[in-house]
Write a structure and sequence with these properties.
163 residues; mainly alpha; 5 helices; 71% helix
Length: 163
């Protein structure tokens, strides 16, 4: 029998989780989008976070109803991590602004991180997702500025080259 939203006792929890996955991915998406980061930004990162959250909510539902065992739920998480890595790989390959070296790595890591934000929310770890969002923003903003300053100083051994 098909269960409609009005009959699903988890519907409100699911809506809250998907909304939180969106809201916590938007700041990182905004930051990446304003930097013109390999076409990944305000649309892609929230979609990755919400999609990961939704897949893991479904996986949790299947586990709770005896369709999956705990290993099945873990397999879904591993598959999500792999798929998100594939999207990140596309961000690395697409960033043609860097003639020498590799570009788009920070954006690829941001894609992967937004997946972790969605996964954290799906499993009820809202505080972990919030901390991950904050620390990710600190990394891309503050560390990015430090790396740019280091590069502007003329040091060719800049560790951020290619990000």
């Amino acid at each position: 029998m098909i269960r409609f939203a009005s009959q699903d006792p988890h519907m409100l929890d699911s809506v809250v989780a998907i909304t939180a996955a969106y809201l916590l991915a938007v700041p990182l998406g905004w930051e990446r989008g304003t930097r013109g980061a390999a076409g990944v930004g305000l649309r892609t990162l929230p979609l990755v976070s919400m999609g990961t959250c939704a897949y893991l909510l479904v996986s949790r539902y299947l586990y709770e109803h005896g369709i999956f065992d705990a290993d099945g739920e873990a397999r879904v998480l591993r598959a999500m991590m792999t798929g998100i890595g594939f999207i990140g790989g596309g961000a690395i390959m697409k960033d043609a602004r860097h003639v020498e070296g590799v570009g788009g790595v920070t954006t690829a890591a941001s894609v992967w991180t937004t997946g972790a934000i969605g996964a954290s929310i799906a499993h009820g770890y809202y505080s972990l997702a919030a901390v991950l969002t904050l620390t990710s923003l600190l990394v891309v903003e503050i560390n990015g500025r430090l790396a740019a300053r280091h590069h502007a100083a003329g040091d060719r051994s800049d560790p951020s080259k290619g990000e």
